[in-house]
Structures are given as C-alpha cells and as structure tokens.
Specification:
About 25% of the residues lie in helices and about 20% in strands. The chain is α/β, with parallel strands linked by helices. The protein binds flavin-adenine dinucleotide (FAD) and ligand NA7. Flavin-adenine dinucleotide binds near residues 41, 50 and 284.
Amino acid sequence: MTKADNKRIGIIGAGPSGLAQLRAFEALEKAGVETPEIVCFEKQRHWGGMWNYTWRTGVGKYGEPIHGSMYKYLWSNGPKECLEFSDYSFDEHFGKPISSYPPRPVLFDYIQGRIKKSNAKNYIRFNTTVRWVEYLEDKNQFRVILDDLKENRTYEEIFDFLVVASGHFSTPNMPYFKGIENFPGAVMHAHDFRGADQFKGQDLLLIGSSYSAEDIGVQCYKHGANSITLSYRSNPIGVDWPEGIEELPLVTHFEDDTAFFKDGSSKKFDAVVMCTGYQHKFPFLPDQYRLKTKNNLYPNDIYKGIFFNDLPNLIYLGMQDQYYTFNMFDAQAWVARDYMMGKFELPPKEERTKDINTWLDKYAQVETANQEVDFQTDYIKDLLTLSDYPDFNTDKVANMFKEWLQDKEENILTYRDKIFTSVVTGTQAAEHHTDWMDELNDSKERYLMEPEEEELIPDPL
Ligand code: FAD
Ligand code: NA7
C-alpha cells in the first residue's frame, strides 16, 4: 500500500496507545517506506492521555467529560523496567540511571521524549472530539463525525482504517450504597481524586480492593490522613497494613456519616472515595462495533487483542487490563501497522474466533497474580512474533513483575524503594535520593537532583 492508494488511517486518542501507533508508522517512514495518510484526533489540548495531568474534574473548558484520572503525588505503581519502550530507553532519554519507580511527571517526560523526536505532532488534531462513527458497508470505509472544540464546528472525514486508542480508565463505575445520599462529607470516584491534600487529618473510606484503592489509600496515609479504611467486595488486598490502614468487608449501608460493614462493624467517616473501577465506554461507536467487556486481560471479540472480529479494519489498542503498558501498546501498534500496510492478511473469521477462544480458555485457567503475569507475557510474546517491534526479554520482565508483587506483599510502604535492571540496556536503576515514604515532592526537578545536591533539595517536611 502506498499513499498513492489514497488509504487513510484515523486514530482516536493521543495517549500512549495512539502515540505508539504514530511511532510505529514513523519507524517505517524512517526506513524509507511510504506510509498512508494518518490523522490522530485528541480531545484534550495536549498528548499523553492519562499522563497529561489535569487539575480539572467534571467537564473541561469546552464542556467535554474530563478524561484524566491521574492525581498529584502519583508514582509509578510498577517498575519502570517493565514498561520501557524497547526502541527508546530510559538511558537514552535521561542520560543517566534513574530509580525504578519514578513519579508521574518523570514518566510523562519520558513518553514525550520519544514522540518529540518525531514529527508526530503534525498528525495530531488537538481539541478535537470524535463524536460518532458510521461504517459505510458498501465502501468498506468509516465516516467519522468530529467536533472541533475550539471552533465549535462539526465536520466529517472518511477513513479506511480506524484505530480506537481512547483508553478505558476514564468513565467511572459508580455503585450505589443505601443511605450514601445522606452522607455529609465528600463522596467521589477515584476518577475525580486529585491528590491527598484535602484528606489530611481525615478518616477516609475507600471502597474497592484493586490498584486505585491500594494506591490512593497508601498516598493518603503518607500525606497525613488520620485513618484509611478499605472495603472489599470479593477479596481483600491482604497485605500487612501499617497501623492506620485497615481492610474490612463490603459496606452494607450508610447512616449519616457512619458506614456499616458486612462483618457487623461500623465506623464514622469524613469522606468516601469509590475505587470501584472503570467502564469500557465508546459513546462514539454504534452498538455493533463497540467492544463490550469488563476490565480483564483478554477482552472477547478482538483477534490478537487488537482486531474487532466482526470488522477487522476497526482496530483497538490498549483495551486489556494492564501489567504491561507502554511496551504492550507498542507491540500491538506495530502489528496493527503491518496489517494496515497490507504486510499480512488476517485468517478467516472462523479461525480468528478459534484463536480468541483458545486464549479465553487459557485465561479461564488463570488463578493467581503470578499466573496473570505469565498469561500477559505469553500474549506479548505472541505479538512480538508478528512484527519487527524490537524484541525484548519478556521472561526477565515477567520475573520483575513477580518480584514486584512479592515486594508489595512484604512491605506496601517500601516497595517503591527497590531497584531493577533494564532488559533494554542492561542498566541497573539508581536508588532515589530520598526514601519514597519521606518524599512528598513529586516534581521532575527534585526527582532528577543528584544525591550530593541533597542540601539544595527543599526539606519536604
Ligand atoms: P489513555 O492514556 O487513557 O489515553 C486515551 C486518549 O484518548 C486520551 O488522551 C483521551 O483524551 C483521548 N480520547 C478519548 N476519547 C476520545 C474521543 N472521543 N475523541 C478524541 N480523543 C479521545 N500505567 C502504568 O504503566 N504505570 C502506572 O503507574 C499507571 N498508573 C495509573 C494510574 C491511574 C490513576 C490510571 C487511571 C491509570 C494508570 N496506568 C498506569 C495505566 C494507564 O492507563 C496507561 O499507562 C496508559 O495511559 C494507557 O494509554 P492509552 O493511550 O491506552 O489510554
Ligand atoms: P480495577 O483494577 O478494575 O478494580 C476495580 C475494583 O473495584 C475491584 O476491587 C472491584 O472488586 C471493585 N468493585 C467494582 N464494583 C464494585 C462494587 N459495586 N462494590 C464494591 N467494589 C466494587 O480498577 P482500579 O481503578 O483499581 O485500577 C484501574 C487502573 O487504574 C489500573 O490499571 C491502575 O494502574 C490505575 P472485585 O474484585 O471485582 O469484587
């Protein structure tokens, strides 16, 4: 396929997944291959998706639902060595070893570093929301309705392939608990949490027992909340919590500021944060083309975790629950690129369905977190056989994930002080100049200071 074929590719979202797609095409261009016309639509004014922090909640400047769920003082919740781009190392970006668990601004900087070296910006239309998509069956094309938010103008464009890279940690899953309507304090979803400051000295209830509950709980503990109570539906996180954090079974109901729990206990709270996960939501897609799934490691209906089985020119990136993140989006984007370039054809639908079912059967056998890591590692290995994305040692990465799980279990407050070795460069991470529990400042400037500059570092206390 060449530009002369007039093929057009539309990408929805300029987060890590959408940027991975742009980078994949750029790698071809650099190798002298002619690529199709690409337009990436991003409803925010800047790239980076979740990593582009916003103080806003609710709706944005132009009345669009706020995408961002990230918050202040967020530090990587897994080792950076497990997400490193295999074509752009941390060494290349920072020019020196850094620690294994950098804060959000540092990872954002890393994501931007790779993309700034390209001409990707030319392909992105910022402040543009994809409002609706129609599949034109007779032409095998997509009609995409767009809103230019700044100009308040609606227009349409036609594409041959459509890449959905709109993320799935943005639309809250917000359950109801009897009596919560009379709770006098703040009630919010993790999506609207913007940092621990407002909860200093408070007794905080977090409902949920996954990443958000764990991370927001530990952050609020670190930044001075009086007490943290985590309430689980299925399983507790189950680590050895420090005094001040406890886990209780699910809330049954509220009476004013008191929550009652399944084990018969009750407690007064100042605020409630629902850490109850997110919905895969594609309001711009017609019913039959929407990916309908819970947050899991192998959503149904997408072949190789990418191609919508009923309409493979509709491509989804990053829709899985995530141990692997940036490198998984890359591996997917490279495969998607080669399909769009006509480098390979997909097998017939029956074979694709069989392949999906084989993965689903395998996933049904998975019981432990370590097995989840192995499952996603096998998925990545499969992807890596399908394109020329630079290979990386997935077995070593899997081992790092398992160590990380173990470290968290051993001490949820200190696991971020551990260091790992890059599978891309072989570089061992540096120790951060300050223990994570004592580090209240997450700025890039402070993070990148050398230990000997310690006296220049403002005392966080
Ligand atoms: P997103 O980053 O969500 O980007 C999607 C983009 O699509 C956004 O820019 C959005 O504005 C745009 N978009 C959506 N709809 C439209 C539309 N209709 N029109 C135009 N544009 C649209 N991962 C890690 O590796 N480490 C971590 O420590 C980590 N912490 C996390 C903490 C939180 C609170 C959350 C929510 C996620 C965290 N993640 C973490 C996972 C994170 O989601 C991924 O790292 C990554 O951001 C996913 O990239 P994405 O491009 O698929 O989606
Ligand atoms: P997850 O990982 O999807 O977890 C959602 C959690 O919410 C999980 O513990 C669920 O419990 C719980 N949940 C969902 N519905 C309810 C109801 N109705 N009542 C009680 N508890 C409920 O989402 P997270 O926000 O933690 O993490 C998402 C990403 O953000 C992640 O990738 C991180 O990197 C950051 P269950 O176990 O299903 O019973």
